[in-house]
Amino acid sequence: MEHMGKKRPRTRRSFTPEFKAEIVELCQRGDRSVGQIAKDFDLTETAVRQWVVQADRDAGARDDGLTSDEKAELAQLRRENRRLREDVEVLKRATAFFAKETR
User: Fold this and answer.
1) Which residues, at least 6 apart from 47, have a Cβ–Cβ distance to it below 8 Å?
2) CA separation for the pair 82, 89 (Å, rounded)
3) Under a CB-based contact definition with an 8 Å cutoff, are residues 34 and 49 in contact?
4) Reduced to 3 states, what is the DSSP secondary structure of residue 7?
5) pTM of the model
6) What pLDDT score was predicted for residue 11?
7) CB contact set of 51 (below 8 Å; sequence gap of 6+)
8) Is the pLDDT confidence value at 97 over 70?
9) Which residues neighbour 30 within 8 Å (Cβ) at sequence distance 6 or greater?
10) CA–CA distance, 25 with 17 (Å, rounded to integer)
11) pLDDT tens digits, residue range 10-24?
């Protein structure tokens, strides 16, 4: 009786781009509501709405955020930036080490 009325949090699931595209297409047809589609496929309504918004951004229908390509490029640039900062830190340490050795 302790857990009565409490829902356990969902485990995070990942979906293929093809699956998301199919769900977005169903939503855009307008046959069923977003809520009904989410319920039919055991998805959260929020996730489905976000997929629709992202598809609109990617199609150029919205300009209130980054497209999927821009998000991927940003992630790649951040990874590269992090790696370069680590490289600079290693070079600083090596420079300090060799400067100490030559005295």
Assistant:
1) 38
2) 11
3) yes
4) coil
5) 0.73
6) 85
7) 20, 23, 24
8) yes
9) none
10) 12
11) 788 999 999 999 999
DSSP 8-state code for residue 99: H
DSSP 10-77: PPP----HHHHHHHHHHHHHTSS-HHHHHHHTT--HHHHHHHHHHHHHHHTS--SS--HHHHHHHHHH
Token pair for 37: 């589609």
CA dist 3 and 6 (Å) reads 5
Tracing tokens 């977005």 back to the chain, one arrives at 24
What six digits make up the tokens of 56? 């609109």
Q: Amino acid identity of 32? A: R
User: For residue 23, what pLDDT is reported?
Assistant: 97
Summarize pLDDT for 23-70 with one digit per residue, the tens. 999 999 999 999 999 999 999 999 999 999 999 999 999 999 999 999
Which tokens sit at 53?
A: 């918004």
6: helix, strand or coil: coil
Which tokens sit at 68? 């999927």
